[in-house]
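Before a colleague's protein record goes any further, I have to sign it off. Alongside the sequence sits a line of tokens, each denoting a local backbone shape. I want your independent view on whether this chain really folds as the tokens say. Where you disagree with what is written, explain briefly why. This is what I was given:
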Amino acid sequence: MTDRKADKRRLRGEMASQRRCVDPAHALEAGRAVARYLLAELSVQTAARVALYAALPDELPSRPLFEGLVKAGVQVLLPRIAGDRALVFCSVEHWSDLRVSGRLRILEPPEGSPRVRPVQGDVVMVPGVAFDADGWRLGRGAGYYDRAFPPEADAPPLLFGLAYAFQVVPSLPHGSHDRRMDAIVTERGVVRVQGAGS
């Protein structure tokens, strides 16, 4: 367990350094490329709803995908941190409706936004520090997405990990509380994870 924690801490540090070095022009083009790939993805086109997130400055930009989904008439959900480190998802129609909130200064739907729980038939875009080809994800360590989408959940949505290509690594440490992604999406394309289970 100690080695796993140390490995995760080391990798988070390495990835933080690399993300800080991403050129803003490349970041924007990567966000646009991811949007193009996902808007052409059948599972996204046929989804009842798509849950997204407002990317932090060091994450692959998510606004191009949000705008594309809204233009395509897709209901878009974004997360809020509520209660004891829980994520709730709310329907959002305009990026300008989001408000900076919390210790991390994340853009979130405002209080009172209609809540919708993502279920089977929905697609959820998941941020991460790193992903591997088997669909395992390394988050920032708070466990929000692990609690929101545990591996034993009934009728789960599809989970798509969003990241820069350099954030996809050969393998990641993982435990019983982790759920694999169904696909990994970078500026180079969409890669389906074999045997992810959804």
User: Anything to note?
Assistant: The chain has five helices and twelve strands. The first helix runs from residue 2 to 20.
